[in-house]
Amino acid sequence: MTGPDFSPVGASVRRNDARGKVTGETRYGGDLAGEDALHVAVLRSELPHAEIRGIDTAKAKALPGVVAVLTAADVPGTNRHGLIRRDQELIASRFVRYTGDAVAVVVAETAKIARRALGLIDVDYFPLPGVFTLDEALAPDAPQIHPIGNLLTRKPILRGDAETAMREAFVTVEETYLTQAVDHAFLDLEAGMAYMDGDVLTLHASGQWVHEERRLLSLALGLPQERMRIIQPATGGAFGGREDLGIQIYLALAALKTGRTVRQDYDRAESMTARHKRHPLRIRYQLGADREGNLVAAKVTVHADTGAYASTGDAVMRKSASHATGPYRVPNVQVDVFGVFTNLSPCGAMRGFGAAQMAVGYELALDKLAEALGMDRLEIRRRNLIRNGESVTTTQVIPVATGLQCLEEAQRRIGWERRDYETGSPTLKRGYGISTFCFGLGYGDGFPDASRARVRFAEDGVLEVYTGAVEVGQGLTTVMAQIAAQECGVDPESVRVIWADTHRTPESGSSSATRQTYFTGSAVQIAASELRLQLMDIGAAMLPVHWDDLTLAGGELRDRHEASLSLPIARVLEEGRRRGFSLEASGIFKPPTLPSDPEGLSPRSFITYLFGSHACSLLVDVETGEVKVERIVAVHDVGKALNPRLVTGQIEGGVTQGLGMALMEEVIRREGKILNPGFTDYILPTMVDVPPIEAVFLENADVGGPYGARGIGEPPLIGTPPAILSAIADAIGTQVTETPATPERVWRAIQEKPHRERARDLGMPASVHSGE
Amino acid sequence: MFYQPKTVEEALELKARLGTAARFLAGGTDLVVMMKKGRLTLEDVVDLSRLSELSGTRDEGETLYVGALCPHRTLESWPIQVLASAARQVGGPQIRNRGTVGGNVGTASPAGDVSVALLALDASVELISLRGTRMLPLREFFLGVGKTAIAVDELIAGFRFRRPSRSAFYKNGKRNSVAISVVCAGVSLDTDGYPAIALGSVASTPLRLLKTEAFLRERGLDPETALEAGRLASEEVRPITDHRASAEYRRAVAGVAVTRLLTQLMPGGAHVAHV
Amino acid sequence: MSPMSSSLPPRGSQANDDERLPLAFALNGEAVDTRVHPLDTLLEVLREKLRLTGTKGACHEGECGSCTVLVDGVPMNSCLILAPQVHGAEIVTVEGLADGETLSAVQKAFIDCGAVQCGYCTPGLLIAAKSFLETCPNPTPEEVRQGMEGNICRCTGYMKVIDAVVEAAKAMPNPKGGRHDRA
Predict the structure, then answer these.
(1) How many CA atoms are closer than 13 Å to the CA of A508, on its beta-carbon side?
(2) Nearest-CB residue to C157 (from A110, A195, A656)
């Protein structure tokens, strides 16, 4: 894939890690350790809330083959971690707050011995009353989970006068929507290896931000950062689920304490029990409009179950608040998002990060409003979507707001005007759904957000890219190779990408927040374009021409006016080395955002926004509530698709996770215990469940991203749940207000429909009422 | 110890000797999972997978015979709809290649799709031991969750049932494929047009709906009685509420399933569309 | 990557004590003769004992298909098979798909169609696809869906996997001689 006319950026270049993945050679975290490694296992709390009165490890230690049994007393540093607040202990010293809390760590010669030893540890628990629902947690006499109480945070948005505007609205609707706890369910279970390399603790385990993980572990274990090295192995999916520290803790501690090579492998039940989840939200949504359907006010109260620890809860709550009214123009807004502790799994980052749940709220509320006004669902969106230069909830002005363009493309492709409700069966009803949404890219709200990259021609003449960013399946290493190749005129398949090794690569922030194409892509572009300039200077002197007369592509420098004047890059490198050029350059991309004011407003919450629209059709069996999705159209404005095949792959994958959230995925808990910690009952979409997906991207260039690119990681998940729920309502004539819309919930909504309608007809204070 | 008998004789000797001290393994699609999760401690395992004598199927004229070790995959293409359709919906292809009919029945899961299909065919189970062979109606075989009427020295050899005139199967799960049944149902009509109706996940065992059947025997099968049979079925089932569904929903779906299957099987009846 | 430091302590001796059962089978065309614990699964023996880590475990209950291998030509979940059960059998894993450096048609199609993202489900999908195409050499997308429903992928949304299987079929010689078009 070379030649002077070939542009690496914008081409569907094959992934540079695909060959190893199809031959089985690629090594993931569980593929690394040899037979010499000791096995690490964690004893997790049996109780959701308890005080530890004592731990007796003598019997476990006496078991032949056990090398160490570690408790909180053995942790040398602060013993605390947490991405935003350090409120979680590596190993619980006194209190356990959910059934995944670590109580002790065993290191043994075999996995079997380690497991047996766990059963020999006696923990004296004093049970404390547990808090398992929002209402229980908020009750005045509720057991307190943390010294700060049961309220983690409150994130408001106050804009205009929502109270008055709602009162004066022509029509208002009100409904409560419930979303569920979702598991990331990446297939590559947490696994890894650690050992002491001299005095450097070396850890091979998959996270999402190796430098931050090192920072947190260093603090928790009392080890200087330079004495810790984290290397990310190949990683089988993350989706936010590898953001919090997990397996790294026990691997690092075990290697440090034993001085031996250690390995650890979670099984699926431990993975699902220990790891954080997507926040379940209770969204009370009130929306008001004028006679023409222009939105005038939104009042939104959200209670989020943030589980036992803060995790990234503060940031998720803020994202829920800042995305509470989506891509719509709402002059008067009153939002309150409360993060509430419970004795359930901590909740934190997952693809969509608080914005995905809110899209269920604002889209279904908008549908209800359309119904109350007798308007088409599409028309009410068209009317209220912000246009270029208008602002989202936070008052941030969006220069290029392409929600409407996305909507029109989705409308055209699904055939909205030709909707066909004929199913040939009285028990099957078809429904069509449509959604529009927006998403702020990057951490935002003033949080330092930076990517760094280094690009160099190595001694063997290969162009190398160094980035601390992690490849978790999204194709980052391929895209970075494309960008470097574009700037330096080489074949993208020849580029060597060195990634996510804290000793060798510069910090590039997390693979999350839909930020890596934009941030690390920019850093690589900056670095590579500096390197390009070196090549130009060297080559220009050799020819000799002014560098401005040169092009660099297809492995050679060429005079743009005089085609016969050209130089292969290899010769330029040779000359550059002779003349003492470094043949390397670094780039840092660190665009600022601004923190919000006390009312939740900010002129620049996010570096840029993404827009999209999904549409779908589906069938509902009205006697059993079963749903079969027939077709999904997913339109996203990506700015510029640096690799179209990777972009559509991200869209299709996100849509499928959205379908899972909409219809089947749910972590079910009773008294703090997960009832479905495995794939038999945590239901993921199979090939049969996923209909043909039309992944469509629009390319309205972003002024700040590399080559105009925005990003694509999270938005594809966000649009699908509201589109599917909207279609179900279209089919059955009433909304399912709780996700996932399992067959039973759909069936129940159908059973309750006559009651709801009667209540409304009697003018009872149901969900819809007219004002004025 | 790990035993791998090559003949039924050897297997029965092991069964007589080891009894419940050993686990007798066919496809292993349930047992191995339970063992790995630590819910089952295995010491001695007897692998039955080499007993090819028990893996075949036989057309015996009026009756059909399915060996206990017949994998689900084999039944998928059978002309007996209720069995073929149930077999097609047990797990993914890999499970169907491995899992056996005898294993599905022997596990005595209330949700066993193939168990329900066999029950709907009014099948009998052939139990063998060194003492001899006995046939037991399948409806007397299931005693509770994981509990059966098998004697400690017995193995399941196979299943025999009369060829139905028509039959059909319905499954409701939380996704469109590879799902544990929330409710499954099988109905067959014998050559006289009398129905046998069985449901899964609506009681502690796969359940024959004898009352509903009696009603249909008396009243005959027509659109009206099919509807009434559905209502009776909803009453006759004894579901529980668990993390997969509520009892209320299971009752409702049981009724819908019975009405639909009967409607579909009725002379001139058409397939009822469902997703 | 060379993670092993040179100063490794001796490994524990307990590990082998109960690996007492002799086991012989053909693995990707080569004879394997080893000893295992009777309750080791085929997946554990492949990965831990034989160090063939291409085959992945993800759910360990037969729901996801990541661990799919061919047992005498039939795709099965290696997490559900006790290793002694395959004594004398022929096993094919992902490592056995390529012919030296030459990738099989299915492997090539997975790369070319973008069917690989995180890659963790890929080995199981490749084995399932190889087997599926033997029974259905010229499939429609719908046939691929039905025939490969036993493999979960969390990244791709399956579209490109389905494309890849259909494309691989086109690139493979049809065993029944000549392609036939479907209406």
Answers:
(1) 36
(2) A656
Identify the pLDDT of residue B56. Answer: 94
Q: Are A83 and A104 in contact (CB under 8 A)?
A: no
Contacts of C57 (CB under 8 A, 6+ apart): A30, A189, C43, C47, C66, C67, C79
Look at C3 and A680 and tell me if their CB atoms are within 8 Å: no
- Taking a C-beta distance cutoff of 8 angstroms, is the pair A704, A610 a contact? no
DSSP letter assigned to residue A328: B
DSSP β-bridge partners for residue B24? B46
Q: Closest-CA residue in chain B for C77? A: B94
Which chain C residues are Cβ-neighbours of A187 within 8 angstroms?
A: 56, 58, 64, 66, 118, 120-121, 152-154
Residues in C touching A260 (Cβ below 8 Å): 9
In which residue are the tokens 């004789």 written?
B9
**Greatest CA separation found in chain C?**
66
- pLDDT for the residue numbered B37: 83
Average pLDDT, integer, range A43-50: 98
Q: Closest Cα to residue B100, out of B47, B177, B45?
A: B47
CB contact under 8 A, A681 and B244: yes
Does residue A232 contact residue A470 with C-beta atoms inside 8 Å? Answer: yes
Tens of pLDDT, residue by residue over A296-335, are 999 999 999 999 999 999 999 999 999 999 999 999 999 9
What DSSP string describes A125-153? EEE-----SHHHHHSTTPPPSBTTBSEEE
Residue A426, preceding peptide bond in cis (omega within 30° of 0): no
- Residues whose CB falls within 8 Å of the CB of residue A139, separated by 6 or more in sequence, listed in order: none
Residues in chain C closer than 8 A to B3 (CB atoms):
none
pLDDT in tens, A444-456: 999 999 999 999 9
Q: Give yes or no for a contact between A338 and A151, defined as CB atoms under 8 angstroms apart.
A: yes
- Which of C40, C72, C77, C131 to mutate to test binding with chain B, by most B CBs within 10 Å of its CB? C77
Residues of chain C with C-beta less than 8 angstroms from the C-beta of A678: 59, 61, 63
Is A65 in Cβ contact with C111 (below 8 Å)?
no
Three-point CA angle A227, A228, A231, nearest 5°? 145
Instruction: Encode chain B in three state secondary structure.
Output: CEECCCCHHHHHHHHHHHHHHEEEECCCCCHHHHHHCCCCCCCEEEECCCCHHHCCEEECCCEEEEECCCEHHHHCCCCCHHHHHHHHCCCCHHHHHHCEHHHHHHHCCCCCHHHHHHHHCCCEEEEEECCEEEEEEHHHCEEECCEECCCCCCEEEEEEEECCCEEEEEEECCCCCCCCCCEEEEEEECCCCCEEEEEECCCCCCEECHHHHHHHHHHCCCHHHHHHHHHHHHHHCCCCCCCCCCHHHHHHHHHHHHHHHHHHHCCCCCCCCCC
CB contact under 8 A, A261 and C8: yes
Q: Are A288 and A295 in contact (CB under 8 A)?
A: yes
The token pair at B40 is 């089952």
Angle between helices A476-488 and A516-542 in degrees, nearest 10:
30
